[in-house]
Each structure stands twice: as C-alpha cells, then as structure tokens.
Amino acid sequence: MRQTHLLIPTLRDDPSDAETNSHRFMVRAGLIRQMAAGVYSYLPLGYRVLRNVERIIREEMDAAGATELLLPALHPSELWKESGRWDQYGDELMRLSDRQGRAFALGATHEEAITSLVRDEVKSYKKLPMTLYQLQTKFRDERRPRYGLLRGREFLMKDAYSFDATDEGLDRSYRSMYDAYSAIFNRCGIRYLAVEADSGSIGGTDTHEFVALSGIGEDTIAHCGECGYAANVELAQSVPPDAERTTAARADSGQPENPAAGPQLTDTPDVRTIAQLTAYLSIRPAQIIKSVALLVDGKPVVALVRGDRELNETKVKRLLEASSVTMMSEADIAAKLGSHPGYIGPVGLGPDVTIAADEQILSMTAAVVGANEPDRHLTGVAPGRDFRIDASGDLCTAVPGDLCPNCRKPLLLDKGIEVGHVFKLGTKYSEPMRATFLDDTGKPRPFQMGCYGIGVSRLLAAIAEQHHDEAGIVWPSSVAPFHVHLIVASSRDDTQTALAEKLYDELRRAGIDVLLDDRDERAGVKFADSDLLGIPIRVTVGKRAAEGVVECKRRRDSEAVQVETGNLTAYIR
Ligand code: ATP
Ligand code: MG
Ligand code: MG
Ligand code: MG
To answer: Where is the Aminoacyl-transfer RNA synthetases class-II family profile domain (predicted)?
Structure first.
C-alpha cells in the first residue's frame, strides 16, 4: 500500500493523556484514536495489527477443536436475571432500555448468552464435548478506563466456552484451551506467566490468568524461580462481591458475624494491629494493602479502600469513634487533595510506612501514595521490598522474603498485564439456567462448562508495551502491520522513484506485505515515522539507486546493510 493514500496520522509529540509507552506510541503512530474515555477507533494500521492477532487466535482455537460463532451484544435483562448476575454484576454492566422500557445490557461477557443457546440446541451427550468461541466487542463501564487499549470500556475479546458431560471432560477441555493460549501468546511474542488466579465475578473453581510481564501492569504476580509456582496477588486480596455485600448487610442489621470469620471483638473495638483490624472488618490482611495513608489537616489518616466502596461502613464508623484513625473513601481523599481518584494507589509498608514488631499500624509516616508528587505523595514504594506474600499466598505487611508454598524458596514479585483468563465453571451457569443434556442412560444432567477469555485489544497494547524503544514500537513479525517499509529517500528523484516502484511490485508479487512511503517529505521525517510505526524491515531507495543497491535495516537492529536489488527478496525472507 501507498502511504500517500493511507490514513496514518503520525504525531511528533506525545499525547498529554498518555501515561504508558504503548498508549503514547499507538496514538503517535496513528494506530488508534480516542472517541470517548475508554472508547477507541482502530485506524488502518492499528486494524491490520488487530487482524493479525485475530488470525493467530483463530488458527490456534480452530486447531484446538473449537468453532467460531457470533453472539449478540445486546442482551435482554431476563437472561442475566436467570443467572442472578443482573443484580450481582454491579455498575460495570452497561444497562439501557428500549422504547417500550424493557431493560437490556450490553454484553460484558457471554456466559448467559452461550448457556441459553446451548441449552436450546444441544440435547444429547453425543454432541459433547463442544467448544464454541467468538471474537466480539465487549462493554464494561470501567471505573477507570485508561492506558489506551489496556483498559477500555468498549474492547475486543475472544471468548470461548466449553461444554462437557463430565468433570474429566472439563479437565481435558480446560487443558486444551490452556495449551492453545500458551501457543497464542508465544506466537504474539509476549513474555508471560500463567498464574493461579481469582475467579472474581465470573465464578468457578480452577482458574489461571495469562499475565504479560510489564512494569505498568495492574496485577502483581508472586512466582517462584525454582518450581514454577505462580499466583496473582489478587487471589489473596479478593473478597467476592457477594461476600462483601453480605457482610455489610449483616453488620447493618446487627446480626452476629460468622464465628469462622475470625476472632470476635467486642462492640468497643480494641483494634491496634493489622490482624485485629482485618478480623474486625472481616477482610483479609491483603486488603490492608489497598489502603491509603495520608496527612489531612496535619493528622495521619488511614483509609481502607476496595474499589470506591468503604469496607463495611458500620464497623468502620464504630472503629472511628473509638480510635484515632480516620477512615475515608478513596473518593473523599481524592476530593480533599483535589486530585483524581486514580492517583491514589496502594500504600506500601516499609521505609515510608513503619510497622512495629507487634504489627502496630498507627506509626506510619504521613504521606499520600500514587501520584509521586514531591511533598504530597509517598514515593518509591515497591512490592517485594515493601510488602510481601506469605506462604498461603496472602499479601501481608512486614519484611520481604516470603516463601513459595510448594518448595519453600523465596517468592519473586513482578507486575503484569492480564491478557487472558481461563476458568473451570462447572455447573455454575448450567444449573441455575437449567441447561441440561441427556446422558447415556437418558438422564438429564447439567453441562460441565469452562470459559476462556483473551483481551484481544489489550493484547495489542501489551505487545507494544513489551516491544518498543525510545523511537517507537518494534512489532514482532507475526503481528506487524506490514513486513517491509519501502522508503524513497527523495520522491523528487526519478531514478529513486522508478526503482522503488519496481521493487514495490516485485515484493508484492512475492507475497510480501509492503508499505511504500512515496510521500513528498524529507528523508529524516520518513525515517522517524518509520521507527514510530515499527515495521520489521526498512528498505531505503536512496543515493545508490542508479547502481541497483538499496539499504536494508531491521527495526530492532541499529546497523543497516547495503543489498543489491537482485538479492532483496531473498534477504527479506
Ligand atoms: P481486569 O482484572 O483487568 O479488570 P477481568 O479479570 O475483569 O480483567 P475477564 O473478565 O477475565 O477480565 O475478561 C477476560 C479478558 O478480557 C481479560 O483477561 C483481559 O485480557 C480482557 N479485559 C478485561 N477487561 C478489559 C478492559 N476493560 N479492556 C480491555 N481488555 C479487558
Ligand atoms: Mg475487570
Ligand atoms: Mg482480573
Ligand atoms: Mg480475569
């Protein structure tokens, strides 16, 4: 294709809202443009990368025996009520109503949609196992859409669903998707870990996340260099939304707590240690990490936050009355500071926040975490150094150096981006939705289900995050928008132009994807754009055109080589 006719609006300067390399380079290279917060257009080059990633996904899913279909994005509320998630899913579900006032949701995920389809269409064990997948736009009203394609409110997901007659069948389907995911991420050039994960609001038992390693990732992975154990710290931090609600409701109604939840404290709380605090609030120690320490009006304040909800409000209030600690919501803190809630991050315990040997929590230095503004924020906090994971996988608060639950070697902590997630759902959806098949004795049984998601658009950003340098993206060949960037150094030079046109035809005839930069721009501008776009091989037709020699440079190398045009196709291959 010719650059003169292609929409590739490259930008010299970083967009002001871009905090990550993938975001700034994807905007600057003219791959994506934002329409609303978390809502993006894919411009021609970005769309080519997306299609390459989709092709890899389709090939691996098909090879694993899954078949593609396409489900609706518009879901009647009745469907989500059948599974109970109309009420459970919360504000992330985009809801709307039609002209008759009937309620709908935009698909955030498709367990209900697929379960209802298979319930109606698959009646016999003879059809099983069956795995169906789709590539489709999902809608989630994320509280903090950010980092470009990494966390969108409209994003592309590949979601697959397996249906089996037995547990063992589900194990096999799960394994096969797990292997397909490994193949997909390898082919996309992603450095990742498959980690034990939390099943969140989708539910289920066995679950793994595929996490692309990256310093900007929102997930923290504890892994063992010795035996390969790896888990998402979220696993330890999570409290299912239902549990949180039930606890709050119980506290509000004055009913007694479940005695299994931890040591019982009296009405006047004597809360001085982390253990006492977490037991009192019926949360896990991990959630203390989701706290914020700051100085407000000269007084140290600790706010426990999970999402934008205060934990167990009644208890928190009672605690406040009886202690010197002030609890605030993330939103309150942000308002006080005149800052964005997104700037308030996890507090780390260590050099900045000190904890006495008895885990006394009130001795922290007053500071705010997250935005790293001098004199206002707690800076330089790092997982691993400032907090740790204990042997049960719980995140806790003392010295670093906790041990792997399998082999007792020290655990390492890394940041990563969740690019894929596989779950064994079992009968979590088939039972409430009465999706059954007849087994070989003619008895109805609920399907054993699994679900498997890849954030396709997020994967693009994760690739760019792992593959870039200071000049732009360095696409792995498997997903690059073009294979060769053919540049005419001076498009006013007839010899150069003629040779470039000839090579352009030759390469295309050889089946090579070529982007021809035939614009009337200075060579320097073309080279800078070329680095920004990150096409794997740059071929420049310049001063030696008359001799039939061109310059070839791989995007990831710094050195260029001179190649005779007769050898060019062979060199490129
Ligand atoms: P996260 O923890 O990042 O919010 P999730 O656990 O809510 O993700 P899943 O429900 O497991 O996401 O969805 C499957 C995949 O879809 C995720 O592994 C991720 O790659 C992708 N994904 C989820 N939310 C988004 C989003 N807002 N924007 C882009 N991709 C997303
Ligand atoms: Mg999410
Ligand atoms: Mg997640
Ligand atoms: Mg997930």
So the answer is: 38-476
State the Cα–Cα distance between residues 160 and 133, nearest whole angstrom. 4
pLDDT tens column, 26-83: 999 999 999 999 999 999 999 999 999 999 999 999 999 999 999 999 999 999 999 9
CA of 419 to the centre of ligand 3 (A): 9
What confidence tens digit (pLDDT) does each residue in 453-485 have? 999 999 999 999 999 999 999 999 999 999 999
Ligand 1 atom nearest to 109, measured from its CA: 10
End-to-end CA distance of the chain: 19
3-state secondary structure of 96: strand
Chain position carrying tokens 């789709």:
134
> How many Cα atoms sit within 13 Å of 530 on the Cβ side?
30
Instruction: Provide the sign of the torsion angle of the four alpha carbons 242, 247, 252, 257, taken in this order.
Output: positive
Q: How far apart, in whole angstroms, are the C-alpha atoms of residue 404 and residue 426?
A: 29
Query: Residue written as tokens 């498009």?
Result: 491
In angstroms, the CA 244 to CA 355 distance is 27
Assess: ipTM above 0.90.
Answer: yes
- Would the CB of 345 count as within 6 Å of ligand 1? no
Express the helix, strand and coil content of the chain in percent, nearest 5 each.
35, 25, 40
Interval between CA 157 and ligand 3 midpoint (Å) = 14
The reply to whether ligand 1 has any atom less than 6 angstroms from the CB of 53 is: no
Q: Tell me how far the alpha carbon of residue 141 lies from the centroid of ligand 2, in angstroms.
A: 10
Token code pair at residue 460: 């693009």
- Token pair, residue 561, equals 């080589």
568 Cβ closer than 6 Å to some ligand 1 atom: no
Ligand 1, atom 12: nearest CA belongs to which residue? 421
Q: Which of 161, 458, 460 to mutate to test the pocket of ligand 1 (most atoms within 8 A of CB)?
A: 458
- Determine if ligand 1 sits within 6 Å of the CB of residue 151: yes
Rounded distance from Cα 512 to ligand 2 centre (Å) = 39
Find how far residue 486's CA is from the centre of its chain. 34
Model confidence, pTM: 0.75
Statement: residue 401 has pLDDT above 80: no
Contact 141, 91 (CB under 8 A): yes
Q: Which atom of ligand 1 is nearest to the CA of 151?
A: 28
